[in-house]
Specification:
It is built from 14 helices and 8 strands. By secondary structure, the chain is mainly alpha-helical. Strand 4 and strand 5 form a beta hairpin.
Length: 521
């Protein structure tokens, strides 16, 4: 028991000693940690103080630099203001000196003017004295002359005036005659100059139209399809268009022959459509020809519109625009009528501008001067008068109407536009190669051939082909029977033989066709 108690006591003492030792060690460690912490804090404070000092120095330097910069800018502003003030003061001083100089000059001028006025007054007084003396001397001289001559002053004056009048009249007549001669020479030179300049400025190429068109084919196989079985297709095309189709050995081409350019164009476009489509038979041919004819009518209107737009002509009546378009398919002595009219319009514009006349009105009159040639029907009215009537009907100005009607001297010219149009028409027609009289007479003969056929009852269509050596007449089957067709051919040939003069022979072919058409529904 005692042994155990002793052991317990020893253990307690050992625990107490251990606790004390541990406390001592812990306190020793804590004191070392505190020392190290104090030392670290002192280092941090020292570094913070040094950094603060450096930042303080930097801020102070920046503030000083900013102050210096603001001070320099302020000094610049002050210097600029001072310079402006100095410049303003200098300008003011210059103005003052200039004004003082002007004042001094004005004083000198005033003084000189006053001196001159005084001098003039003295001179006027002197002149008045001299004038009075001269008047006295003149009166005394006149009295002496009256005594010597035995005439009064008034009688002498009247004789002198009469003599001077006669002499002045003679001199004036000489002067007028000389002026007239010079004016004629100058006017002729100026007129030549204006005409030559106008011709040179409006230089165009001339090409006389032919009476044939060449239709190109992709291959010779198409020729057979165009001819058709036993020639029915080519006969249908010729009957529908009035154009002779010549198929010869020319490779990949056939020739369309007709004096009327509208028919040739209809035939050419129709053939193009048929060949492109591939369906070539009589019914299709007639359908295509009808469509193409309507297309040509639309194209005529488009050509007229493009022409007036190109020439800058406004407010033209639609019927006159259509007439201008039809000029494309008309010719005058072999010269294309539209090309001729456009050229005349440009010539008139240039010449009118040179003469100080309204150029737009002259261009309008030049374009419309030959619209009387557009109608297909032959009339006894000259084309100039017919064109003037058309222009009056569709509201053109009197000067334009007079220029159209007077360009071939059918009526009296009443405005300056008329001679301008007449001269420009002559210039356009007189260009080398512009016209060909033979071609025009040939076309007129073909038209006369067709007109003779239309003079007989029952004739629906008539086409002059083979250069006028053949006339094909298509009659209405309801009005003309077979026997009548034979007699009609003879009557037409006799009429041609009686009324026309032509080389060679003219073959008259009358065609009568009967169709029976029904529709299956």
């Amino acid at each position: 028991m005692e042994h155990n108690a002793l052991l317990f006591i020893v253990g307690v003492i050992a625990l107490a000693l251990g606790f004390l030792i541990a406390k001592m060690l812990e306190r020793n460690n804590a004191s070392q940690i505190i020392k190290r912490a104090k030392k670290s804090a002192q280092g941090i404070l020292k570094e913070a103080k040094s950094e603060g000092e450096s930042i303080k120095k930097d801020k102070i330097l920046q503030a000083k630099e900013k102050f210096i910069e603001l001070k320099a800018e302020h000094e610049k502003v002050i210097l600029g203001r001072d310079k402006k003030m100095n410049d303003a003061e200098k300008r003011t001083r210059d103005k003052e000196s200039q004004v003082s100089g002007e004042l001094s000059r004005n004083k000198k001028l005033n003084q000189s003017l006053e001196d001159r006025i005084k001098d003039y007054d003295k001179r006027l007084e002197y002149v008045d004295k001299k004038k009075a003396e001269a008047e006295k001397m003149h009166q005394s001289t006149v009295q002496q002359l009256e005594v010597i001559s035995g005439l009064s002053a008034e009688e002498a004056k009247s004789q002198l005036i009469t003599t001077l009048k006669d002499q002045a009249k003679a001199d004036a007549m000489k002067h007028v005659q000389t002026s007239i001669e010079e004016a004629k020479m100058t006017a002729e030179q100026e007129a030549k100059k204006i005409i030559i300049n106008t011709i040179q400025r409006i230089g165009t190429e001339e090409a006389v139209e032919n009476c044939v068109s060449v239709f190109n084919l992709e291959s010779d196989d198409v020729k057979g399809r165009i001819i058709g079985r036993e020639g029915r297709n080519i006969r249908a095309i010729e009957a529908a268009t009035g154009v002779e189709i010549i198929v010869d050995d020319t490779p990949e081409a056939i020739i369309l022959s007709c004096f009327d350019s509208v028919r040739r164009e209809v035939a050419r476009l129709s053939l193009h459509k048929l060949v492109t489509d591939g369906r070539i038979h009589p019914a299709r041919i007639e359908e295509v020809v009808q469509k193409t004819t309507r297309q040509i009518e639309q194209e005529i209107v488009e050509v007229g519109k493009r022409t007036v737009i190109d020439l800058g002509i406004h407010g033209l009546h639609p019927e006159l625009i259509k007439a201008v378009g039809r000029m494309k398919y008309r010719s005058s002595y072999g010269q294309n009528l539209l090309q001729h009219s456009r050229e005349v319009a440009k010539l008139c514009s240039v010449m009118a501008a040179e003469l100080g006349v309204n150029a737009k009105l002259a261009r309008r009159a030049g374009l419309l001067h030959d619209i009387g040639k557009v109608p297909d029907t032959e009339t006894e009215t000259p084309h100039a008068i017919l064109g003037m009537q058309w222009a009056e009907k569709y509201g053109e100005k009197p000067d334009v109407c007079n220029a159209i009607g007077a360009h071939h001297d059918e009526i009296e010219m009443t405005s300056l536009l008329s001679p301008i149009v007449q001269v420009c028409d002559a210039i356009s027609g007189a260009r080398p190669g512009a016209r060909r009289q033979v071609l025009d007479s040939y076309i007129q003969r073909l038209k006369d051939l067709e007109e003779i056929a239309f003079g007989f009852q029952g004739v629906k269509k008539a086409y002059a082909i083979q250069a006028g050596r053949e006339l094909r007449v298509i009659v209405e089957s309801e009005k003309v029977n077979d026997d009548k067709a034979s007699s009609l051919s003879f009557e037409i040939s006799q009429k041609i033989q009686t009324d026309m003069t032509y080389p060679g022979q003219v073959k008259v072919t009358v065609i009568r066709e009967t169709r029976a058409v029904n529709i299956a529904k």
